[in-house]
From TrEMBL, chain A:
Belongs to the ATPase epsilon chain family. This is ATP synthase F1 subcomplex epsilon subunit. GO terms for molecular function: proton-transporting ATP synthase activity, rotational mechanism. Pfam families: ATP-synt_DE_N (PF02823). It comes from Okibacterium fritillariae. CDD domains: F1-ATPase_delta. It comes from the Bacteria.
UniProtKB/TrEMBL annotation, chain B:
This is ATP synthase gamma chain. It comes from Okibacterium fritillariae. It is a peripheral membrane protein. Belongs to the ATPase gamma chain family. F-type ATPases have 2 components, CF(1) - the catalytic core - and CF(0) - the membrane proton channel. CF(1) has five subunits: alpha(3), beta(3), gamma(1), delta(1), epsilon(1). CF(0) has three main subunits: a, b and c. It holds the Pfam family ATP-synt. One of its GO terms (biological process) is proton motive force-driven plasma membrane ATP synthesis.
Amino acid sequence: MASSKLQVSVVAADHEVWSGQASMVVAKTVEGEIGILPGHEPMLAVLAEGQVRVTTDNGQKITADASDGFLSVENNTVTVVAGNASLVK
Amino acid sequence: MGAQLRVYTQRIKSAQTTKKITRAMELISASRIQKAQARVAASGPYSRAITRAVSAVATYSNVDHVLTTEPEKIERAAVVIFASDRGLAGAFSSQVLRQANELTELLQSQGKEVTYFLVGRKSVAYFAFRKRASEGQWTGGTDSPSFETAQEIGQALLKSFLTDASEGGVDEIHVVYNRFVSMVTQTPEVVRLLPLEVVEGVEEPDSKTVLPLYEFEPDAANVLDALLPVYIESRLFNAMLQSAASEHAARQKAMKSASDNADKLITDYTRLRNNARQAEITQQIAEIVGGADALSGAK
């Protein structure tokens, strides 16, 4: 059964932007916005230019800019990979 | 002061000045290696994630992609050479260039034409001096490479790769760079970048864990289209970072032995100078004694 947490890491080409546990990830792919909750099926998606929003497990919201990258989901592990990514303060 | 004595003093001075420079360069490189190594480590998660994704797509879809299919006949091959911008780094640039020349001979013996893409002022100078042509040159910033440069190189390579051989494109791309093994060893390495051999030369994902069946969005072909250029950029960026770390390590080693040599020279010349000074004094005494003898004999 799916556990209730997502392990999220946002990585840019030269450093890891953010990593930690989250309850939801919202990202914008080339086909539209997608929300990922724990238990999501394995997926590889191409990201469109836009923001990735992560809701951490204590309810905090983190936003990151990500361009020319992709998103992979497997086993409750979400990896957002982008050539250029940065946290939005 | 005698002529001989003056010459020795000059030599000692010159060795001391050289030593100051080499010692400073050694210390600078030593401090930059740490930073360069940290950057190699920091780019790890990115390249691991990409490698994993690329192998996932390649394994679970039957998409034939132009970047992964082996062309029937390879007419022209490109060689990307990562050298340094500045010298005084021992054999750093020359060993890469030597490796590239060996590769060239090998490719030419297989009947392929070779074109070059050069990174670093040293490789550009090497080619300019021998009046050899190159397709692309990137100089500046080899000691702390930026991802933008890797993207630029990647795009130039892809453009050339996607052009037909009859129109001046290439069918194969090789990369030659210095791999950072340890602080004392950096080995020149040749990696074939295109056509892709997925998961080769980089850290592979653990072979025991089976990759899950992925859902692709929009579809496998499109995902692969987007992933492969990124994968190539990441490989290039990794090569650049490794090369930068190697450059600093090579420079530190070269400058350390230069400083040691300067030390040895200073000791040797100081001994010779003392000898010469003593000889001069002895001669002066002999002259005085001789002179006094002659004077007393004349009375």
